[in-house]
Amino acid sequence: MKRSAFFEKTIILTLSNIITGTLTFAFSIILSREIGSKGVGLYQLVMPVYMLFLSFTGGGITVTVSKIAAEKKAVGSYNELYKTVKALCVFEFIWSLVITAFVLLGSTFISSTILADKRTLYGIIAFCPAIVIVSISSVFKGAFYGLQRVIEPALIDIVEKIGRVLLIFLFVRFTRNSGIEVTSAAAVFSLSCGELISFLLFFICYKNFVRKHPGYGKSDNSPQLILNVLKLSVPLALTGILSTIFSTLATVMIPKRLQAAGMPYESALSLLGKLQGMALTIAFYPTIIIGAINVLLIPSISEAVAFKKNHIVNHRINISLTIASVAAFSSAAIMMAIPGRLGQFLYKDPAVGEILRVLVPGIPIIYIEMVTFSILNGLGKQTKLLINSIILSATELTLIYIFLGIPSLNIKGYAVSFIISGILGLILSFIVIRKTVEFRLNLYSCLILPMLCSVLLFILTTFFLDKLSSTPLIVLLSYAFYMIIYLPMYSYSKKQYR
Predict the structure, then answer these.
(1) What is the pLDDT of residues 345-387, one digit of tens each?
(2) 454 and 306 fall within a common domain
(3) Which of 26, 92, 152, 378 could form a disulfide with 298 if both were Cys (CB 3.0 to 4.6 A apart)?
(4) How far apart are CA 41 and CA 347, in angstroms?
(5) For residue 244, what are the contacts with CB-CB under 8 A and spacing of at least 6?
(6) What is the number of alpha carbons within 13 Å of residue 204 lying toward its C-beta?
(7) What is the pTM (predicted TM-score) of this model?
């Protein structure tokens, strides 16, 4: 991919992610206001289970197909790509049906024993259709990303998120008087319906692409093509499975450890909803920019590695880390300056802001860590990523168990684990990157400059912008001032570097 094309498609995906991220954000706000923090707590208990079984059926498929599609496109082997997509769709359909049947049969056990809350039963049943739908959609999505066609996935994501937001209004209002377990399940079911919309649109767009770009030439047989994909996707799937298992354990553990610290279960469940359904949603909202980078970074690095263009690999890694740092430090400065106002404006709950405040120090670390994971995928280091993920997940789980049980720390114990595990993740990722490519980190552009500008932004927002009455205006002006401060300094440093 040419440099200009890389940036052009990054911008397209960034704009798409801003829209879809905002719609997802709106979904969380609607959810919290319609079903309350306890309902959000139930929803958050169910979602890791959904992600776990999704990892079993489609884990690593999007990334792997993206990588394979980029390679096939580079050599013009479209026929083999189409045959791979077709074989994978059949495989994913059969395999996801098996897993879905297993979930339905074990739903009562999962809700009552694993999640320790019988009210999650309906939510588990509600996400079952999505397991099959998303597993097949992930194949098409990976093909589009690998072919570096970003407009179709971008538009489909927007339509899917709009559908989900509209459906949650309909379903939750319809089930409002049916109990918290039914309304939270209705929210989960809106997710399944949204994924169905996404699948249908992906299928139509893919068929249209194949019609316009017919494939020719020989190809391996279907079993061999599936095996080629599984060789790459299984380590990623294992990474997702193990990470989700740890995530599920952590989610279940949070209210239990808060109970151990002396908090009643219903209050602990409410605090879980505020943490994972509200504060973390605010904290990770700016990662929509990083998501756009990651989608293009994996196939672009894979392509550059295939042609042994190390200078391009080096450049794109540095650019990606720089963008992640800018997004991370600017957002952290704003969230640290006005956490209470953000919690009140978005969720009508200033307590969410207090939770957000303790999470802020870990935000830059986690944002940059997210990019390093995509870099490892692009470099073909899925096994190393799996090992690193196991180490990180085990560390985070241990830290949550220890710190959340301390009454004086309470939910702050989660922030401690958030920061420590993030630092460990960065160290492990950079060790692998440095061993794989001749990587030279531009420390000033990637870290020092974004951090210095964030300090100035924090002072500006705290002492001047915070006097404004409109919270959205404060946020917009803060980001604008950050770029006004950052861009001239970045341009100057670039000239000096050259």
Answers:
(1) 988 888 899 999 999 999 999 999 988 988 887 787 878 887 8
(2) yes
(3) 378
(4) 14
(5) 48, 51, 52, 55
(6) 9
(7) 0.73
